[in-house]
Amino acid sequence: MSATNSINIMIAAGGTGGHIIPAIALGRALEKAAPVNIFYVCGNRSVELDLYHREGIQPIVMGVRQLGKALFQRLGGSLAAATVAGSLWNFIRRHNIRAVVGFGGYVSGPAILAGILARRRTLIHEANSVAGRTNRWVAPWVDVVAVNFAAACQQMRAKQCEVVGMPIRDDVFCGNREEAYRHFGLDPRKRTLLVLGGSQGALYLYRALLQALPHLDVPEFGDLQILWSTGVANFDELSHRLEENALRWLSVKLVPFIARMDLALACADAAVSRAGASTCAELSAVGIYTLYIPLPTAIYDHQRRNADELTQAGVGLQLPENEMSPERTANIIKKLLSEAPAKREYVAKYGQIHRDAATKLARRVLDLAFSRRP
User: Fold this and answer.
1) Shared-domain flag, residues 159 and 240
2) What is the pLDDT of residue 314?
3) pLDDT at 2
4) What's the burial of 238, exposed, middle or buried (CB within 10 Å: 0-12/13-18/19+)?
5) Residue of 48, 160, 206, 357 with fewest CB within 10 Å of its CB?
6) Does this model's pTM top 0.85?
7) Residue 1 lies in a domain
8) Residue 324 within a domain
9) Phi, psi (degrees; rounded to nearest 5) at 188
10) How far apart are CA 82 and CA 367, in angstroms?
């Protein structure tokens, strides 16, 4: 792809996979739709860089950080953000960036500000039902605000707000159930419950789930197996605790990390998960009825609000972490498993918006990139 027949677009996303994964999904959709050069921008934390490098992407790295609460922290954070905005303003002008898209993370605000000051077209995407502070600040000045949940539109004074869903990876839909059984060493004759804890605060959740397992270890669930993504840091402890439980009927497969999420989703009949926006979108897009246990320390309590939206829509159940007694957790998992078969088609229909989100958002970004600023 040569510079003479392509347009340049900047996508800023940092912090966590909840921002970076949909940003990459948009980038892939843009590359399919038109001749484009995508410049990704992120912060300098290793977790951000690993997510990009895993996809073969070398992002532009900027040293940004949280503003903090103390005066000196806010001053230092503001100075760093202003420096980053200045650097990106120069980059945008030098490389003739036509549109700047922000997905979140500390780098997103300075990138959008640079785009506005350089008089380029700008778009932000809000993943959660509770709009983040930076997105609320910049919303009145960007050309388009795109949201996952309609409730977020009401929280931002936007010129134009569109509900597009959550851009998700194409490969999520490519998993084969038989291949998944072989890959994870699972029994194809059994139902599979997928457990996903996310990257933050998962250990307390996992310990509570382990305490519920003896209440599920009954002949009734002899046809149930659990595929459990523990996270590398938690694997040894959970393996040891699981051995102590000495389960008789219930099968549990612990894995430190699931690289082939397409296969995990392909073999899952139901799931237990945190309520991060990307995970919620992927689960609903493939029709998996899910018990959502929101991270209680999530900023703005956005995971609970995300889960509220999904449970009100009838595509999942919700259990607050502080109410996870062994008996109650086991009972709601039993309810989940009994309702899941009848819910699959309904959940997939609800999640259709996410299947189309990357393509729809790519078209919107290209419309902006090819249009002139008034």
Assistant:
1) no
2) 97
3) 41
4) buried
5) 160
6) yes
7) no
8) yes
9) -65, -10
10) 29
